[in-house]
Amino acid sequence: MVKYIIKRVLYSILILFFVSLILYLLMRMLPVDYVEKHFLSQASQGTVSKEEIDRIKELYGLADSSFGGIIKGYFGWLGAALKGDLGTSFKYNQPVGQVIFDHMWISFSVALIAFILQFMIAIPLGIKAATRQYGAIDYTTSVFAMMGISLPGFFLAIILIRIFSVGLGWFPTSGLYDATIDWTGNAGGKLINELWHMVLPMIAIVIGSVGGLMRHTRTNTLEVLNQDYIRTARAKGLSEHKVVYKHVFRNTMVPIVTMTAGIIPSLFGGMMILEQVFSLDGIGQIAYGALHEGDIPFVMGYNMFIAILTVIGTLLSDITYMLVDPRIKISK
Fold first, then answer.
1. Sign of the Cα pseudo-torsion (51, 55, 57, 58, in order)
2. End-to-end CA distance of the chain, in Å?
3. What string of DSSP letters covers 192-217?
4. Residue 18, by phi and psi: left (phi above 0), alpha (psi -120 to 50) or beta?
């Protein structure tokens, strides 16, 4: 186990190296030049000289746009990143790591709750739909699953706001909490208010992501139900409940574990648009603003954050295989 984990960690480091290189090349190809854009008005007024702009570009390794210059700039960024310095954000004028740390908790809280709800809803419904194939439950869950898969997240969010915020007035339309109230000394009330503001974003995320997992669970459950050992278990007189939730469920979970590797990173990535719609000051909205402005240091740091989450999720899913099915052996 230890050798396997070490081997996978080394592979992950190699993967992250190539991911960071590709990301940096893509960032340098962006049509937006933040330094030029930021100082354009000042340069036109003569308050900032062309030499000063060139000096700032040189400081961030952006002066040379040739391939050799870009590679040199990448290794300069990589060397600083290995020391824990992701650079200073052009747009937010703060260390990139600090900006990510300050704003990631909003996105993480919503993503974590949505992740738990997604599994609590999708897996039981997927199993129930498979065991009631071509029944009312199967058709109903299939319709809702296809709606969740087909509807874009931002469109679903707008519909929820129109119905439950504007129409019924049950939930706030945007923001993390009610800014008109003085929450000093009322941390509990502020927390409740924040959770109330999170209801619609979480509903939008869960509806958008639960469909794929539900369909995947249904398909895998149907495949396992048709195996010979399931027929043998039924022939021995085992109850349907024990057949489904002891034998079928355990074998159904193996391919589902594979999906968990990409769910958490996808939730963080999907939050970028939803945070724009709901005006949440999370990492997604911050990253969108940075990308729009061509903020290379921050966009690099954010994308590496997502890449690391993906690698960790993949490693955890591989290890979880053994817990789900002991028959799976890890090759060293």
1. positive
2. 8
3. HHHHHHHHHHHHHHHHHHHHHHHHHH
4. alpha
Spatial distance between the Cα atoms of 28 and 26, rounded to a whole number of angstroms: 5
The pLDDT of residue 270: 60
Are 30 and 295 a contacting pair, CB within 8 Å?
A: no
- Which tokens in the block code for residue 192? 């409740």
Supply the pLDDT for residue 41. Answer: 57
**Domains of the chain (ranges, CATH numbers):** 2-82 (no CATH), 96-324 (1.10.3720.10)
pLDDT at 305: 82
- Report d(CA 132, CA 200) in Å as an integer: 31
pLDDT, averaged across the chain:
75
Distance CA 56, CA 25 (A): 20
pLDDT at 60 over 80: no
pTM here?
0.71
